[in-house]
Amino acid sequence: MSPDQRRITLALCVIVGLSLLVVAGLTFLVSPMAEDLGLSDNQVENVLAIPSVASLMAIFIAGQIGDRLGHRRALLIASAGFILGSGVLATASGALGVEIGLALCGGTAIALQIVALGLLQQTVPEGRAHVSAFTTYGMVFPLAFLAFPVVTAALLEVTSWRWIPVIWAIAGVLIGAIAFFALDRNAMRRPVGEWVTPVLAGIALTAAARSLAEMSHASPESPQVVLGLLISALAIGGCAAVMRRSGRASFSLRPISSGTLRLLLIGVGLVSLVGMLTYISIALEYLYDLTSLEAALAIVPAQAGAVVGAKFVAQWTMHRWGSLRAGRYLMFALALSMLPLLVMQPSTPAWYLVGIAAIFSGLGMAALTVLNADVMGRAPHESTGAVSAFRAAASSIGGALGVAVLGTSVISAVSVDGGQGYVSAAQLDQLAAGLRIDGVIACLIALAGWVSLTIVVRRTTEAEAKPATIS
To answer: How confident is the model at residue 189 (pLDDT cuts 50, 70, 90)?
Structure first.
């Protein structure tokens, strides 16, 4: 990389890393906050869901602001929103203030990530520098989840919960300073245009994702699932109607019109779908009688494996085989890495489960990093933000499907509200069986991703061979 490319890459990695403070530390923040403010169980559930809902709502808006307002300006606006949300949360006196603060933090955090990825592609569009930049970017996420939860939990042992959002606000100031001083000024690319279609697309995505997640503990015909799917369908219909009537709709599918790009986005969704660390953490808590903090510490090797996978495994495989073939091989290896879960029993040592998690986390993060680099590498130069948003949407849908497909068998096996002491031996047997089932399902899903990428490789090979055949 050139010095300018290296400067911008490192700046964007720091910005994205700091934006992950909220999602990585919220689980530990909720309990002392709820106790201090007297929040009910229903309010706590809402608090935990709000950042993800806000981020889903903001995905397609975020995809437009970088391309239309300029990436530097968009990052400055998002950092201001992040600071404001953190401030509202730090001074909240009840559920409303908490919800508003977390909604602002969640929405602006995803905006920072989407705009940063779009700018990264424009800064380092191809070559070995592209591989280096995207593998460095890829390891930011597991590094954040390796450090921030433990740091948040440790701080809450010695100080008030209100200092955590104060730290988030300071991080927002740092994000704004980095964007202002480390990134180049850029002029507005296009007129801002209308915002109805991105908003409707965000509503459709949010409603669909929430409905899929609800299926982990509710039947498909339950009112909340049906209502969510109905809202999603209506929002899609409204978005399509506006797009037909307006010749300059802000939201468009044109940036992902390539069949190859759509198949790669499916691959992104499938890798996100088989992300199982949350369920491994639950299993560690209940099978081995660990606290939430102890379980978080126990999966540190898995997060470390993800860091190694994102930076070193992804980089080595892309240099050796190219991004398309590397993604294909990594997806197949990811499928195989799920099979050791088939021998899980309640008496299986904890180190075995942690070791499996480290392996499939490393391979999964390597595959996701390779796919992200390939997806963004195919983005039109003027629409990197839009493609970044579609990538985030694919990942979000995959994660929501993961809750419904993989989370059900684990979550239903334990009485989460009652704690470990309320779980019987029969439930522990059911939990181990749930992990075995998840291993099979995750293997099949990863194999489906491998098939998808095999189709991409064959299409690309055939397209490259045509000119030679004609000549």
So the answer is: low
Report the candidate in 251, 310, 285 with the shortest Cα–Cα distance to residue 423.
Answer: 285
> How many Cβ atoms sit within 10 Å of the Cβ of residue 461?
11
Among 62, 60, 403, 389, which residue's Cα sits nearest to residue 204? 60
Residue 62 contacts residue 56 (beta carbons within 8 Å): no
Is 105:88 a contact under the CB 8 Å cutoff?
Answer: no
- Which whole number is the average pLDDT over 409-418? 63
Q: Six-digit token pair at 383?
A: 């629409």
CB of 337 within 8 A of CB of 359?
Answer: yes
Alpha carbon distance 193, 248 (integer Å): 7
pLDDT digits (tens, 9 = 90+) for 130-142: 999 999 999 999 9
Rounded to an integer, what distance in angstroms lies between the CA atom of residue 394 and that of residue 273?
A: 10
pLDDT tens for 306-340 read 999 999 999 999 999 998 899 999 999 999 999 99
Q: How far apart are CA 162 and CA 92, in angstroms?
A: 9
> What is the length of the chain?
471
Cα atoms found within 13 Å of the Cα of residue 22, Cβ hemisphere only: 36
Considering only 95-104, 192-201, 264-273, which range has the smallest mean pLDDT?
192-201
* Residue 289 backbone class (left: φ over 0; alpha: ψ -120 to 50; beta: rest): left
Q: Which amino acid is present at 324?
A: L
**Cβ atoms of residues 64 and 386 within 8 Å:** yes
Q: Which amino acid type is present at position 19?
A: S
Separation of alpha carbons 367 and 177, rounded Å: 33
